[in-house]
């Protein structure tokens, strides 16, 4: 009997861990709401520099690749503000939200938070985890309302300083294009012809993989506006004038499927690292990718001759797809709030903007900042002249699961042959229906 | 009754247990009855989260899909991990040369972190430069080469087999301990009576080591129904591709904490409801199984 009792006991202890794992992180459930109401009245604590000790700030981010760049930016800030020690502490892109949410719930987390744009960031602001910035820092008026919208809470207050745009466009290998006498495509058909030529030469036309869902919504977000008509379509979906089952949107999904012959072998099993390797090791000619990969690719293969072109026009003009990425917010529970606010204020200055374009190689949200890298300048110019919004992030990143992730999962199913483009469109519409009508 | 103070000794350990295990369980039970706006707790909504979980698309489809994958996980692990583990344990039991060395070798993968195991096998199974496909192509079996982790028909099987590779040493140890616990005179007596080979295993060995088999079965069951780390390490929080490797725990994690890179909404209430359902599934099935095998065990 005792043996059996011990087995039962062991079993009980094991199964309890399921629930313990769930409940553990949520212990302080009532505090976020409480802190939300108290932030406005709480006086900002003075920095401990009086005692000769440096104030310490941590920055949370999903940009593990940017560590060096941010360390340079921090060093530049320290040149005029020596009394503060700032640590840039990023976590993996796909895990950042979870790590951050769990930390915030227990009343911790970094002092300065890189905020996901739009709905996801708003959720943190609405839960009271963030310090409102209006009136607390200078320089917010340099940004347009549209740009600030990426970090504005439901209450209309601004919770983050938007620092960079993200944009998706087509990168290409200049050497491969030259060797095969391919011109930079001016129309959609030119691009398909270029892909044909590359394929005939045994070079993978597009570095692409469907193993990670976000790559699917990203590629679709870049190419599809040429088929469904960009932001016009998104506003019409929101107002109910049209929907995802419309001809334009379905044809954009069909286009994704029609590109299959130009994808690498076994693309169903390739993730981001695999396809980046294909492109930087010069085995693929084109790469529909975000600007943030530019620095990573240049570092991975300095000899790579990189070029960039906007997604060529199907019927109209060429476009790049953009959204505000990387706003920086201050944790309402930060122990060094004054110093944290001072640092995000620095992020509204031209000095910071110049550091951003040259170190992060991303288009700055601050106007009139020029970059030393010609490709970054080109990206910046595209982002300011021929941009269309990334609909999945800007408009359709709502619902549970989000319409964006429904699109990703179902596109994956389309590539695996279990769904037709029409069925994908139906699923996306079904997901949008769960929150659009509210 | 003089030494009743001795009963106070377990109190510190019990306090930790209550604080970190028992309290969170009841907290999770509590959360599942509330409406959550992101991280903020809203109104008490009774069983609404459970109703959503079982009746609203896509939550109900995802639940049954994940549960089906968990069941498959358990069945395949019983065959691939424990079946092979029994054969290995029996070979070691017959005292072959170097049994000690083999025991250590089988157990070695267990010393690696699951994340390391996941990363390692992701490299091995990479469709274009992974060792497995390269070897297949070199051996002239190119058409067998597959995007193992990218194809829904092979992804879950691949992960379960990796997990079996990881866990087989532990199963061997438990089963070997069971084999070695069988009194020698019983086996000798059976052999004298002319019982040999498979019949010896079926009629003497297995009934005599039923307790070890029960333990490893229950361990495998719980482990299969809590499967998370390896799926997460190799296929991410979406159970990619197309939810074909989704398990209840991964689904729970994604629902409660929002696992998507773009920032899925959090649904702590729904996630807690899912955890509660998982708890009851595992507890009920474990108890039922233990009850069932009670009759099969031989006391000695």
Structure explained in plain terms:
Chain A is α/β, with parallel strands linked by helices. Chain A folds into two domains: 51-165 and 324-385, D-Maltodextrin-Binding Protein, domain 2 (3-Layer(aba) Sandwich); 167-322 and 390-436, 3-Layer(aba) Sandwich (D-Maltodextrin-Binding Protein, domain 2). Chain A is 47% helix and 13% strand. Chain A contains 20 helices and nine strands. In chain A, strands 1, 2, 3, 4, 5, 6, 7, 8 and 9 form a nine-stranded mixed sheet that branches. The longest helix of chain A has 23 residues, at 2-24. Chain A is globular and about 70 Å long. Chain A starts with a helix and ends with a helix. Chain B has 300 residues and is mainly α. Chain B has a single domain (45-294), classed as MetI-like fold. Chain B is 67% helix and 3% strand. In chain B, strands 1-2 form a two-stranded antiparallel sheet. In chain B, α2 crosses α13 (268-294), α3 packs antiparallel against α10 (210-225) and α5 (114-124) packs across α11 (229-235). The longest helix of chain B is centred in the first third of the chain and has 35 residues, at 59-93. The two termini of chain B are 35 Å apart. Residues 260-264 of chain B have low confidence and may be disordered. The chains are: A alpha/beta (438), B mainly alpha (300).
């Amino acid at each position: 009997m005792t043996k059996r009792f011990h087995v039962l006991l062991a079993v009980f202890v094991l199964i309890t861990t399921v629930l313990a794992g769930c409940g553990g992180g949520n212990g302080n459930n009532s505090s976020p709401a409480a802190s939300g109401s108290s932030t406005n009245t709480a006086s900002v604590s003075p920095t401990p520099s009086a005692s000769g000790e440096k104030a310490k700030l941590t920055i949370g981010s999903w940009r593990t690749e940017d560590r060096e760049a941010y360390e340079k930016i921090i060093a530049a800030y320290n040149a005029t503000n020596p009394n503060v020690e700032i640590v840039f502490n990023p976590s993996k892109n796909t895990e950042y939200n979870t790590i951050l949410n769990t930390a915030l719930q227990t009343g911790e987390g970094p002092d300065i938070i890189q905020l996901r744009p739009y709905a996801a960031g708003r959720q943190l602001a609405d839960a009271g985890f963030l310090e409102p910035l209006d009136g607390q820092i200078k320089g917010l008026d340099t940004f347009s309302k549209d740009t600030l919208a990426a970090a504005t809470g439901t209450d209309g207050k601004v919770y983050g300083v938007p620092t960079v745009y993200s944009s998706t466009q087509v990168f290409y290998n200049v050497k491969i294009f030259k060797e095969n006498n391919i011109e930079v495509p001016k129309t959609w058909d030119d691009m398909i012809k270029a892909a044909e030529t590359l394929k005939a030469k045994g070079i993978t036309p597009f570095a692409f993989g469907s193993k990670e869902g976000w790559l699917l919504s990203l590629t679709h977000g870049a190419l599809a506006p040429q088929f469904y008509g960009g932001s016009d379509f998104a506003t019409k979906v929101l107002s109910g004038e049209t929907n995802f089952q419309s001809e334009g949107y379905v044809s954009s999904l069909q286009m994704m499927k029609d590109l299959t012959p130009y994808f690498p072998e076994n693309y169903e099993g390739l993730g981001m690292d695999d396809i980046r390797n294909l492109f930087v090791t010069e085995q693929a000619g084109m790469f529909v990718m975000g600007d943030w990969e530019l620095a990573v690719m240049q570092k991975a293969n300095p000899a790579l001759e990189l070029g960039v072109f906007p997604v060529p026009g199907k019927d109209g003009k060429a476009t790049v797809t953009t959204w505000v990425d990387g706003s920086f917010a201050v944790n309402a529970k930060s122990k060094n709030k004054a110093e944290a606010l001072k640092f995000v204020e620095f992020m509204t200055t031209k000095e910071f903007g110049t550091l951003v374009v040259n170190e992060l190689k991303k288009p700055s949200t601050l106007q009139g900042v020029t970059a030393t890298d010609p490709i970054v300048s080109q990206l910046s110019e595209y982002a300011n002249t021929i941009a269309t919004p990334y609909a999945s992030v800007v408009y359709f990143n709502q619902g549970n699961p989000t319409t964006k992730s429904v699109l990703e999962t179902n596109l994956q199913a389309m590539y695996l042959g279990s769904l037709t483009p029409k069925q994908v469109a139906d699923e996306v519409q079904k997901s949008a229906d769960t929150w659009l009508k509210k | 009754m003089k030494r009743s103070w001795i009963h106070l000794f377990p109190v510190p350990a019990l306090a930790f247990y209550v604080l970190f295990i028992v309290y969170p369980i009841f907290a999770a039970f509590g959360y599942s009855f509330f409406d959550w706006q992101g991280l903020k707790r809203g109104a008490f909504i009774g069983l609404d989260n459970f109703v959503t979980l079982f009746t609203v698309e896509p939550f109900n489809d995802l639940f049954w899909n994940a549960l089906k994958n968990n069941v498959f996980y358990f069945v395949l692990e019983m065959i691939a991990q424990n079946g092979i583990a029994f054969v290995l344990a029996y070979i070691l039991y017959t005292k072959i040369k170097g049994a000690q060395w083999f025991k250590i070798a089988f157990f070695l993968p267990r010393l690696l972190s699951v994340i390391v195991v996941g990363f390692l096998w992701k490299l091995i199974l990479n469709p274009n430069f992974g060792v497995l496909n390269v070897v297949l192509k070199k051996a002239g079996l190119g058409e067998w080469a597959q995007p193992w982790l990218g194809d829904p028909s092979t992804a879950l099987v691949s992960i379960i087999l990796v997990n079996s590779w990881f866990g087989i040493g532990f199963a061997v140890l438990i089963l070997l301990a069971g084999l070695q616990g069988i009194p020698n005179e019983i086996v000798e007596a059976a052999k004298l009576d002319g019982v040999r080979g498979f019949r010896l295993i079926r009629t003497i060995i297995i009934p005599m080591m039923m307790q070890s088999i029960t333990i490893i079965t229950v361990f495998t069951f719980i482990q299969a129904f809590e499967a998370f780390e390896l799926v997460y390490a190799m296929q991410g929080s979406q159970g990619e591709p197309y939810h074909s490797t989704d398990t209840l725990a991964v689904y729970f994690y994604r629902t409660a904490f929002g696992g998507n890179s773009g920032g899925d909404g959090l649904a702590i209430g729904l996630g807690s409801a899912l955890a509660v359902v998982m708890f009851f599934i595992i507890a009920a099935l474990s108890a039922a199984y233990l009850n069932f095998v009670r009759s099969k065990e031989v006391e000695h």
